[in-house]
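Protocol step 4 of 6.
Sequence for OFA family MFS transporter (Methylobacterium planeticum) entered exactly as in the expression construct, tag removed. Do not edit the line below.
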Amino acid sequence: GMAYGLSVFWLPLSRALSVGLSAAAACPDMGVMTALVTTTCDWRVSDLVMVFSIGIVMLGLSAAIFGGWLERAGPRKAGIVAALCWGGGFLIGAAGVYVHQLWLVWLGMGLIGGIGLGLGYISPVSTLIKWFPDRRGMATGMAIMGFGGGAMIGSPLADTLIKTFRTAETAGVWQTLALMGAGYIVFMLGGAFGYRVPPAGWRPDGWTPPASRNAMIASGHVHLDDAHKTVQFWLIWLVLCLNVSAGIGVLALASPMLQEIFGGVLIGQPGVAFGQLDAGQKAQIAAIAAGFVGLLSLFNILGRFFWASLSDRIGRKLTYATFFALGGLLYAAAPWAAGIGSQA
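Step 5 output, structure tokens:
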């Protein structure tokens, strides 16, 4: 879930070569290919955000490609691979920051870490659904609420570690990534070895599949190999793609967006732009921004569990329809809220 909190790294990384200097080592005419290998220019935030974009793409691809393998190999093996990819991706990213090679950061935290994200996302979902056949929506919500909540802990932790490791010569990011990567490997391996699956045909005590079903809850079954051949699959995929794209767009830049848009307003100094703040003031608003990312993560947790559990009662179709309608209204209201200067 810390994937949703990676935005706390973007601003520190964008000044990695100019720590303690009044101006960044900027190269405004630098192309993407140059940015990938430069050792003399600070990275742009737009180049750093690609780490998140690559990771999210790999999450979807790895979940789709390796979903069948997970069912054959079991969630424990998938969890082990997820731990090594996600934690190892952080370690490779730390090495990339240390030698100032953006391509290594993309490779580690984006490509390899994204594979770990996908496997780490679907392995608990697959397991919990088997344990709760009577509450499949709730079981899914229990699994993905943990994924959504990772940033609530990880973002403030990363901000604290960056401040701890920061010196006059280093931004403190590579040390933070290395420590967090090692921690992820340890804790995720512990979780993977704790997986247990019920025997085939297992049911909770006293529960039998109901004879009559809610008309809004489908009882049909389409095999995985045939799902993509149906119109319904692509319509659901489209709704999910649009919904996630909007949310991911905010999450990818949540921390720098809050800092650069509101600037001094966050610390009671309206009219003071972000670029006019001193190092101490920027540290204050960085902590506030990390808290904001954590708040997003908190509501991410609650929303995942609430909507997934509600879908057991009102059906998946109505749940998706609500996502589509409510999401459109809320995103349309965002520019209006920004226009009146409302932080709430």
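Step 6, annotate. The radius of gyration is 22 Å.
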